[in-house]
Amino acid sequence: MTTEQNVDMVTLAIDGKEVTVPKGTFVLHAAKQAGIEIPNFCQYPDLRPFGACRTCMVEIVTRRSTIDISCSAPVSEGMQVFTRSRKVLDAQRFAVESLLVDHPIDCPICDKSGECELQNHAYYTNVRVDNPLARPKMSWEYETLSESVMIKRDRCVLCGRCVRVCDELVGATALAWADRGFQSYIDAAFGEDLKDSPCVSCGLCIEVCPVGALLNTSYHDTARAWFLKRVQTVCTFCGVGCNMELHVEESTGQIKRIIGTQDSGLNGEQLCARGFFGFEFVQGKDRLQTPLVRKDGELRESTWEEALALIAQRLPEYRGDSFAGIAGAHNTNEENYLFNKFVRGVMGSNHIDHDAGVGQGVRQAGLRDVFGSDAPTNAFLDIFENARCVLILGSNLSATHPVFSYKLQTAIRRKGIKLIVAAPQALPLSQIADINLQYRAGAEADLLNGLAALVAQRDLVAHDYLAEFVDGVDAWKQTARTYTAEGIATNTGVPVALLEQAAELYATGGAGVDGRLEDGLFPPSSIVFSAGLSLRDGGEEIEYGAAALALLTGNVGRSGAGVNPLKVANNGQGALDMGCVPFLLPGERLLEDADSRRELERAWGLGDPLPSRPGLGLEGMLQAACAGRIRAMYIMGSNPAQAHGNSQVVNEALSNLEFLVVQDMFRTPTAEYADVVLPACSWAEKDGTYTSAERRIQRVNKALTNHGESIPDWTILVHVLEGMGFERLYTASDQILAEIATVVPRYAGVDRRSLERAGTVVTLRPGKVYRNPSIDPVKRLGVHWPTTESDPHGTPVLYKDGFPGGKARLIPVSFRQGNVMGDGVYGGTINVSLYHQGTGTMTSRCPTLVSLHENGAADSSPERGRGVGMLQSPNLKQSGYSTGQLTDI
Ligand code: SF4
Ligand code: SF4
Ligand code: SF4
Ligand code: FES
């Protein structure tokens, strides 16, 4: 990994200050590290040097003295650099004055005013009021490039950041220069409107524009930058877990915009459309203001006292198996942990699940059988930095995990990583894949187990690794003989030649059969898929195949490798870690393990023994409610009435309940069945932690005052428990986190301080955040569990020191001619939109996202995929939770 490499270092002096940086660093970045600012426009930290604006001039003295641009001058040993000499200041001023010759200088009405780099550099370089180069000002009107992006072209300094980030960092290439020379301007790359381009509305071009040329339509003319309070937090939508700043206008208490910040989180400044534009639901007009209680068949506004008293009176009669609880994959860890304690410990029921997918609660097998845990093995940055080949299986990551896909495409293009995309249809990432395996929908298990069999048959296996770390090899190989290339091709629809090529590419990490490294292994390959893919009957065979491929080739417990099922929701991993599935206690410990139950009983100290009877998952709960066996339910931050594919079953189940409590931000379709609805805070109104799809625990920070009478979900539960006779258990979410750190071994030692330290950045001046060189690039990204008391930075790569049970276990899957899982309904996450997520409870209340979705902006869903070269698949159907498909928003 990066952290383990020896990098040649170079020492130079900048304005007399000695600084040591890695060889190859450019002078401008070395100066930043030394805390010295040099004006610049066209450079941008993650982009290749461009050298267009000439504002970053410095004096460089090696054998002779030269004035040069610092953004593309590499450092050398003993170099002396002067950034404030007379000659330098004159050169810098000339460059900035050249940019101002026809600039409108309409700062009073410019959205960028107060955080504009042209303002700052003009001030810094002392430009003259009577600019001798001034020309008559050009004037361009505001123009709309799409529902999300506006442009005021006369403010553009032609730095090209927007064009280049869109191409290099997003992979969309939706912007371009038009015309030449003095007439140059920025435009949509294809036609007049970004809707005609592959723009994914990520907002990055707006974010990096140093001036007020590219503008955010939803922020335009709504606030002044200097009145905005900035609060660092984590996105509430998908499992990438992007860090972001909420900009809150204190006088109105409203979020005005969201931005990513350089060097914070995996994403830095990059967000996707949901992250950038998806906050309007927080201040939506239909947020619940007060509790609602059903009276005379109608839900009516009520008081907290009345609602809590009713719950305290009714709930106790349903203790035991007639009670069930459904948590949400968007709740914080603290909330889901407390929910688990409430359902199992207080209500005495193991009927607990969360809304990550139908079947989540009932599927017990998969990676856990092979490795000992279902968790993804490798941190995202580890994959981007160290993988030599990536196999993406059956998942449209451009929609489910957009910033992961943007970062991956950049890594692929820059580092030459080989890419295999296996999916029933072409996806955005298919366009840059080395091999596309377009298989018959439902044939994932055959494809993966088949590829593993081909790897074994060609002896591309890691013999020493298998001997040391893996059990069951002989039995597995025996079964693998039942696979033939022709048989796999028949079942999957993928031609034999492509199967052979893909098996070799993956197994050899793109190095070819003669490319073994000194340790006998090939360069690392990584497997990535959306966890929803295997959430269906028989889905464990997909994971057995993925694990077999990885283990056979020594690609587990190694940087740049691994098997990575990514949870789709922002805290899907956390919901699992907190035990919101019937058969798992917090920390992925099995309910059936009596010692684990005893340990939890002691830690919780609630009196009664924890129930040992197996619990039901969501599907089972609904069936049991229909049959009258489950009579009361508590739903916290989940909306099964809208998400579930079978509305008849949900309707019958929820109508049949004697008592239903729902905690939510909105009066959702599920809330319509409730006896009591309790108003919950949004993620922007509370503290806590989320655990991203790469096992990274991060802090969520309160930015807004509570909406109406809403309170955080965990606080509601504390009050409910108080009403049921428990003394107030917690007064701050950090207290719950402290308990998690003692009860859940993989979270050991995690607390607010360790999480804040792990995410530390240094701010040199308002609006600019620069890298703290003392922070390790992997550790800087938060805390990957498992953590320990002695190393709270955690574990970016699992199983480096072996597996929890000693060895991993290969599990054979026999070849079955004509086998195709299910009926061709695609159980993965192909059918998801870039602009909406889940049931759309949050995203459908964001007008910008709704308008992007409705107006045909480039999307990643197949039916809306114009502009991204997508194919339609007649096999794809749409339904419910497990597809993540939006049907009714
Ligand atoms: S918003 Fe569109 S044009 Fe701008 S960087 Fe993102 S994809 Fe490119
Ligand atoms: S629009 Fe902004 S980012 Fe793009 S070239 Fe002009 S000034 Fe640079
Ligand atoms: S939805 Fe996912 S990719 Fe998009 S900003 Fe949020 S965490 Fe990042
Ligand atoms: S920042 Fe160096 S030339 Fe533009």
Description:
Helices cover 28% and strands 16% of the residues. It is of the alpha/beta class and 889 residues long. It has a seven-stranded mixed sheet, sandwiched between helices. Strands 2-1-5-3-4 form a five-stranded mixed sheet, sandwiched between helices. Helix 21 crosses helix 23 (647-656). Bound molecules: iron/sulfur cluster (3 copies) and FE2/S2 (inorganic) cluster. FE2/S2 (inorganic) cluster binds at residues 40-43, 51-56, 69, 71.
Mean pLDDT: 88
* N-to-C CA distance: 43 Å
Number of helices: 28
The share of residues in extended strands comes to 15-25%
Q: Give the uncertain stretches in residue-range form.
A: 1-5, 358-362, 759-780, 822-831, 862-889
Largest sheet: 7 strands, mixed
* Second-tier CATH architecture of the domain at 367-401 and 412-566 and 801-809: 3-Layer(aba) Sandwich
Name the CATH superfamily assignment of the domain at 367-401 and 412-566 and 801-809.
Answer: Dimethylsulfoxide Reductase, domain 2
CATH topology of the domain at 367-401 and 412-566 and 801-809: Dimethylsulfoxide Reductase, domain 2
Name the bound molecules.
Answer: iron/sulfur cluster, FE2/S2 (inorganic) cluster
Instruction: Count every beta strand, where a strand is a DSSP E run of 2 or more residues.
Output: 34
Question: Can you summarize this structure?
Answer:
With 889 residues, the chain is α/β, with parallel strands linked by helices. Strand 1 and strand 2 form a beta hairpin.
